[in-house]
Amino acid sequence: MRLGKVAFTAVMLVMMTVLASCSSSKFKRYNGPEVTRVIVDKGDRELLLMHHNRVLKSYDMELGFAPVGHKQFEGDGKTPEGEYFIDRRNPNSSFHLSIGISYPNAADIAHAKAAGKSPGGDIFIHGQPNKLVRNRKKSDPDWTAGCISVTNKEMERIYAMVKDGTPITLRP
Fold it and tell me: Range of 100's domain?
């Protein structure tokens, strides 16, 4: 009988350890309604995960260091505006987790090329930097190079909920 209690206790400890490690993982599961669109409202600094016309989740966000206007060129610090889609994900991002936005599209490329410049790229929704960012003050509301930033916990939920191919609307 004593051996049975010891075995039971050992099994319970193993299960608790496994459950604790699963809950601390940055990879979450989501079994709710499909996210059919992501809406980024730059003016209100709000990111919405939509299921058709219903808001599933709303998050505060930070933008590029020059947030007003549509991204036109590499290094301009602007976050794109318009219709794009989620085209990739990076579980090993320098910013906790990240999901990519399909910027630049053909029109963005043509506009930049006509000006003799690069449109830039690598625009993501991401968490906070994995390494300390020098010269960044917590009071800086918009600090990315053109990406959309949320907290790490929020990014874990977004990463789980939003699938590749999901349309994203970025509004002024």
Answer: 32-171
Going across the sheet that includes 82-90, the strands are 54-60, 46-51, 37-41, 167-171, 82-90, 98-101, 123-126, 148-149
| Token pair 């549509």: residue | 70
Instruction: Provide the token pair at 172.
Output: 């002024």
**CA–CA separation, 83 vs 70, rounded Å?**
12
**What digits encode the pLDDT tens for the residues 109-154?**
999 999 999 999 999 999 999 886 555 555 667 889 999 999 999 9
The answer to whether residue 19 is domain-embedded is no
Q: Which 3 state secondary structure label does DSSP give 84?
A: strand
d(CA 51, CA 57): 10
Count the domains in the chain: 1
Give CA–CA dist 28/55, Å, rounded.
Answer: 20
Q: What CATH number does the domain containing 142 carry?
A: 2.40.440.10
